[in-house]
Specification:
With 350 residues, the protein is α/β, with parallel strands linked by helices. It has two domains: 229 residues, Purple Acid Phosphatase, chain A, domain 2, CATH 3.60.21; 111 residues, no CATH class. The protein is built from eight helices and 16 strands. The structure holds manganese (II) ion (MN). It comes from Roseburia hominis (strain DSM 16839 / JCM 17582 / NCIMB 14029 / A2-183). This is Metallophosphoesterase.
């Protein structure tokens, strides 16, 4: 039995709002989803598991129609859907309207239910959110009814406000496989036995690292499942280590070089760290306007020459302050207090 597993597609999200490429990113979210349908057409898996937050918010009728049309293109694949904390069910949700083709099953209750597929010797368990938060551990004590089946749990959650669970415990209770969603970073929870799909596409510039779908087979020896990255967009956080000699131009060249050298699907959140000349303030506005730069933050601290300051301000409150701080026990806190105090007394922002 072959399957594809995706989660947290967040259809409808507009990442990087206010940036010129925001619309393009919104389209890429749909493109990636269509890519997965394309893979399913080619690979013809028996199952496609969508484990929560397919939509970024309550889906519009036209969005459900669009998704429904795509699922209709893979009639031989059973699509199993659970709603997550972003697209949680409510009375009038279009999730519950009869818009889906025959190969789609939506789990409609907030209590776990089982859907049996005797032809594949597989039973799939799942529940859908009816609330923004579910704090009780609804998966940990579930037990599959028929142990001779391949028992798969579709789960959405993994933090304290969204059904925390122990993969180990669920597997001990008799499940053969957990297809999970909610946490946007993808990875094994247990090799070949439990997978956090990660978001299909990054939806926010803090979703760093690769994103994509999982595909695998299920046989007598259990699952054999692998991650397949999609490369529409990848967010990277990069840091520049500044010192007293760093200038605006150096930062500009660094950013330009980064953009030239790295693949076009990478977008950047930049940080400047380290120390800077106290009389120099970086102007990074222009860098922030470059294509594929999400933002840039100056986190440098002024590099004071305390000896010189002491000499120049020996008789003032500043000199007195430096002298008194130097009598204190040395350490990170004292150093920070010294720096913040000097900043304030000199009138710099800190
Ligand atoms: Mn979620």
């Amino acid at each position: 039995m072959k399957f594809i597993h995706i989660a947290d597609v967040h259809l409808g999200v507009k990442p990087d709002q206010g940036k010129p490429w925001s619309e393009q990113r919104a389209r890429q979210i749909w493109d990636s989803f269509a890519d997965v349908i394309g893979v399913a057409k080619r690979e013809k898996p028996e199952f496609l598991f969508v484990t929560g937050d397919l939509f970024h918010a309550q889906p519009l009728k036209k969005e459900v129609r669009e998704v429904s049309r795509l699922f209709g293109e893979i009639p031989d694949t059973q699509v199993l859907l659970i709603a997550g904390n972003h697209d949680y069910l409510r009375e009038k949700s279009y999730y519950l309207a009869d818009l889906w083709p025959d190969n789609v099953t939506v789990f409609k209750k907030e209590e776990a239910e089982a859907v049996d597929f005797p032809e594949y010797n597989t039973t799939v368990y799942g529940l859908s959110y009816w609330h923004r938060e579910i704090r009780d551990r609804r998966y940990d004590d579930l037990r599959p009814v028929n142990r001779s089946r391949c028992n798969i749990l579709l789960a959405h959650g993994g933090d304290e406000r969204h059904i925390a669970f122990s993969a180990e415990r669920i597997l001990q209770n008799g499940f053969d496989y957990i297809a999970a969603g909610h946490i946007h970073r993808s990875g094994w929870l247990m090799p070949h036995k439990a997978v956090m799909a990660g978001s299909l596409e990054p939806t926010d510039c803090n979703d760093t690292g690769p994103h994509g779908y999982w595909m695998g087979t299920f046989g007598a020896a259990g699952a054999d499942v692998y991650f397949y990255p999609l490369r529409h967009c990848e967010y990277c956080h990069e840091m520049y280590q500044a010192d007293r000699n760093t200038t605006d131009r150096m930062l500009w060249d660094w950013a330009k070089e980064l953009l030239e050298q790295r693949p076009e699907y990478q977008y950047f959140r930049l940080y400047i760290k380290g120390k800077k000349d106290p009389e120099y303030s970086f102007d990074v506005q222009e860098i922030g306007k470059l294509d594929r730069i999400v933002d840039i933050t100056d986190q440098t601290v002024p590099d004071y020459d305390y000896e010189k300051l002491l000499e120049e301000h020996a008789d003032s409150i500043l000199g007195e302050y430096i002298r008194s701080m130097r009598k204190k026990e040395p350490g990170v806190c004292t150093a920070k207090a010294l720096e913040y105090g000097v900043n304030a007394l000199l009138g710099y922002d800190c």
